[in-house]
Amino acid sequence: MQQHDVLIIGTGAAGLSLALKLADNANIAVLSKGALTEGATLYAQGGVSAVLGEQGSQDSVDSHINDTVTAGAGLCNRDVVRFVVEGAHASVSWLINQGVSFTLNDNPNNMARFHLNQEGGHSHRRIIHAADSTGKAIETTLESRARAHPNIHIFEHHIAIDLITSQKLGLTGNTCFGAYVLDINSNQIKTFSVRKVVIATGGVGKVYLYTSNPDSCTGDGIAMAWRAGCRIANMEFIQFHPTCLYHPQAKSFLISEALRGEGAKLILPNGERFMQHYDKNAELAPRDIVARAIDHEMKRAGLPCVYLDISHQSKSFIARHFPTINNRCQQLGIELSKEPVPVVPAAHYTCGGIMIDPHGRTDIDGLYAIGEASCSGLHGANRMASNSLLECLVFAHAACEDIQQTLATSPVPHALPKWDASRVTDSDEEVVVSHNWDELRRFMWDYVGIVRTTKRLQRAKNRIQLLKSEITDYYGHFRISKDLLELRNIAVIAELIIESALNRKESIGLHYSNDYPKTNTTSYQNTILKKP
Ligand SMILES: Cc1cc2nc3c(=O)[nH]c(=O)nc-3n(C[C@H](O)[C@H](O)[C@H](O)COP(=O)(O)OP(=O)(O)OC[C@H]3O[C@@H](n4cnc5c(N)ncnc54)[C@H](O)[C@@H]3O)c2cc1C
Description:
Mean pLDDT: 93
Largest sheet: 5 strands, parallel
Shape: globular
Distance between the termini: 32 Å
Number of helices: 15
Strand order of the largest sheet: 7-3-2-11-18
Bound molecules: flavin-adenine dinucleotide
Helix content: 25-40%
């Protein structure tokens, strides 16, 4: 039995920030299901949005709030937006103190210390960044700090299976006491008994066939919280990035919208452009419009992908402006100055998640959720670029304050029952797991993707019910593995997305239904699901 003060499930920006903030006063266990740095944070390119009060800037907190609320299409919680935006300055300062090297301003006419970028939806330059790999700079800095801290106990290649709650143990009340965790290398199941549990497991992109997310994004934390009885909100709002590289050897690689900014055109296999039929700004239309247009063209003509053509630019221009993308394409034999690159839209960001209050608390005592796994009210129906890392940092701080105030009075770690594996055997049909993974991700892409209809959602609902019963049966009979646990979780996530999408009888933000193309401006409701 592992006994600690706090168990943090997840080691991205959210989990590691919280661990470091708590560690001087508490004994912390952190889990990552792969290597410690592997998660969405590592791949974040753009940066962190923050009004830093830099000299010469016309930006303001109110402007950042208004931009966020506009992007969220009326569904943001304005108090939460203010709370997060006001917390940005302190969060960025904390990162700098940890040692993150943000790109400095090298323009002698500009008085600001840091170079700030501007991204879609932001009315000012306010994205602090570390070149084009901000996430890597943050993640690796936090990693080295965490590895050096004597109170942080790191469990890599450990996958949390389920939470241990009073309800599960047949006790009164509604408290979380710990979690069962599979040590992937030794195949042993460990019991963690703690005073507080924090879910920081990131998003759900892997539930779709195409995603910009790394393999870890299977929504485990959201699925665990759902099984334990937490409310889950706004799961229909999945953000799709319009252009992810489509190549058998290139998993989850984004082709930045900056290429379209430099004149790249979206074309069909016959070389015809199509974006001009969808928006007056053609290729420079907002992300969700471009993603919907590509999706429409792919479905209309049964295409596996469309193409992005920047061949009007010279080889040297492309190499200078897009070094990372150029290198990756060249590795795959694609010469951008000569030929178009195949692209598909891809699931990118999960706006919904475990409902939390401004302290990161969930519906269960002692259980917190922070980062992309949570639904704080910040994003509403659509996330504004670079607000997500900020949310991780601000809520890590908020949860830290609450945990520090309440840790001493929380129940001491219990002697919890061991995991019971007496009724399961080794599987003789692993093929069921891999087949169901593929089937689920494909029908989620085809039926619950960028443009939805009630008929397709119903079709997906029937499929998921069948799959879920098959998975439950398999789970009850065979020894668990990482693949099986993740499959069980993406099935829950798929069901939550389908159910939320069916509940929303309008098109708003990231949810678009052909059957309900208008927004219902009189209601502006969140979709909240609770297990019966
Ligand atoms: C390609 C890409 C580019 C992006 N660019 C930006 C950007 O520029 N700016 C911005 O603000 N946002 C960006 N985002 C979004 C942002 O990166 C994420 O929202 C953020 O990093 C999420 O951080 P997190 O800590 O919540 O989760 P993650 O960083 O995904 O970490 C999740 C952690 O949970 C662990 N975990 C998951 N399940 C389990 C389990 N069952 N047991 C144990 N451990 C588990 C994982 O191993 C991992 O350590 C981008 C995302 C992607 C994919």
